[in-house]
Automatic annotation (TrEMBL):
InterPro entries: Lysozyme-like_dom_sf, Lytic_transglycosylase_MltB, MltB-like, SLT_2. CDD domains: Slt35-like (cd13399). Pfam families: SLT_2 (PF13406). PANTHER family: MEMBRANE-BOUND LYTIC MUREIN TRANSGLYCOSYLASE B. GO terms for biological process: peptidoglycan catabolic process. It comes from Methylobacter tundripaludum. This is Membrane-bound lytic murein transglycosylase B. Residues 39-329 form the Transglycosylase SLT domain. NCBIfam families: MltB (TIGR02282). One of its GO terms (molecular function) is peptidoglycan lytic transglycosylase activity. The active site is at E133.
Amino acid sequence: MLKYNLISRLRSIPCALRLSPFAFCLLLISCTGNIKDTESVHSFIEQMSAKHQFDESELEDLFETVEIKQDILKRIASPSEALPWYKYRKIFLTEARIDAGVQFWKDNAPALAAAEQQYGVPPEIIVAIIGVETLFGKNTGNHRVIDALSTLAFAYPPRSKFFLSELENFLLLCRDEHINPADPLGSYAGAMGMPQFMPSSFRNYAVDFDNDNRRDIWRNNNDVIASVANYFAKHHWQKGQTIAVPVTAKYKNYEPALNNDLKPDLRVAELESLNLIISRQLPLDSKVKLLSFEQQGQGKELWAALDNFYVITRYNHSPLYAMAVYQLSLSILNKKGSFP
């Protein structure tokens, strides 16, 4: 009856003032408190049934439990990547995280060595990813994944297409892995487990490394390590190649070379023609990306990032994230060198 009354009232509103279908769904959610009653959810359930042969009544029962989370909508609007580099790096480049990384490496040395052998990704990069993502499993998130993905799919229009796809992948992976979709917990964006894989990443890159017939990225360190390594390998990690090197500028005529694209787009020779000094010798025909990182009261820190840095940004499309991973990996590697 409430839904009928809302529709009747909307029909009496002049066309110019009427809500879009998406806005109407948000209004209906706020009035009923039940996401299952919205047209967008009904349509999604029908699609999952037609496309993947899900039982509609089971999905209706599942969405009966789903809640739109306002705190998730607030978090998605202010990600940590919006911080300047000098503040962002302080979150991840801490002695506690470095020490935890050294300990994680020592505790999982055989799996890390095996993953490097199979996928070509060095242990320090794998360890740093897990350290940045969840502090080695300590911060895997406390939102139900079904709530997080549904909130962003049905109540966050700027990314609804992406999160609808992730919700679809989540239900598929739960069916494939025999997981109750109401159970998994994750981040406010629906990322899961120690490596914080989105559902599509889980389906494409998660690995059962110890052959126990489960891809467990929540509790099985072997699977976690191999899954991260596989992700990097599938995104064309180049074994043994340089990741990034510091750059010094004589003048500011380099600024036109800075842009928002992350893929290497300049030859080393081109950088040098801009009066930039690269701290390590690289082949003149190597392609690099010139990146600038804001320092507190010290201007900009410049780096030449190569293909492997770009691969790190495939995990999280932020140069701040990739630089934090890279610098954490170096700190962990250096500190581990003083331990057996």
